[in-house]
User: What shape does this take?
Amino acid sequence: MRLDFNVLWVEDQQSAVASSRQRIEHLLRNEGFRLRVQFAATLEEAQKYLDDHVYVDHVDLVLMDFNLGPGPNGDEGLIRVRNVMPYKDVIFYSAQDGQNLKDIVSSTNTEGIFLASREALADITFSVFRNLLSKVLDVDHSRGLVMGATSDIDYFANETLVRLFDKADDKTKLEIINLVLRRLAQIKERLNESMSALEKIKHASELVDHHALYTSTDRLQLLRKTLKLLNMQLEAEKRMSDYVNDIVPKRNELAHLRVEIDGFARKFIGKKGEVTIEQMKDLRVALLEHQEVFEALHKAVYTEGKLKQ
Assistant: This one.
């Protein structure tokens, strides 16, 4: 799973479904997911995506309009989609109130197709989305989502830090290296303290409290300080501080949850009690916002002339 929900949308009039798209984006974002849409105006264009096996592997849902203007219509599209993706969820819709979509689907001999009017398209899409999530999105899978998203953030942060270092003048590069050396001195001191503490442990359970190197959090903090040195992207720098202080501790706690098994049910227990699905949703929503900050920063740094001073 990932925080992106990918939709292949076969529709020849994108403006006609703009409000539906906005509502779907809003509903998904409230669940901590981001809508990604690839529009295709014709079946021929859609076929190019269907022929790309790498692309097809990442499609979560297909939206298929019936009336596609000149050329084959959506009923032919259903057949093509099912030939390539026999088990992928598909929503077949039409703007024409009198259109009997059920009969049209029956004539194509395709199965597993959801039907919707254009007015109800957003709500039907969200219902299908929630149904997909209910099958896989327990607390355990949510942990994987959080770990994956924070790994993406680490990647963007590391790449951005390297790029900023390369673009800095010699004086600033020296200041950045000095920041690293000062942090390493702190880590060395912390390691020495941990070694002393480890020599005095009385129980194996105490080992978990002693782990230290130049961690991803250290690199995030270095990136923050580098941005301040360069006096750029200061709003992003503040958001990064919020991420380090609010999200990273929750991410770290998820890695050490205790599992309680009761029949088919699995409960995950943290320091403050059971971690619930609702708590994981709130964490996804916050994490998605932070992920977009890091993505935008990475893009700005790697786009010449777009750095904000």
About this structure: Residues 139-301 form one domain. The mean pLDDT is 85. The two ends are 36 Å apart (CA to CA).
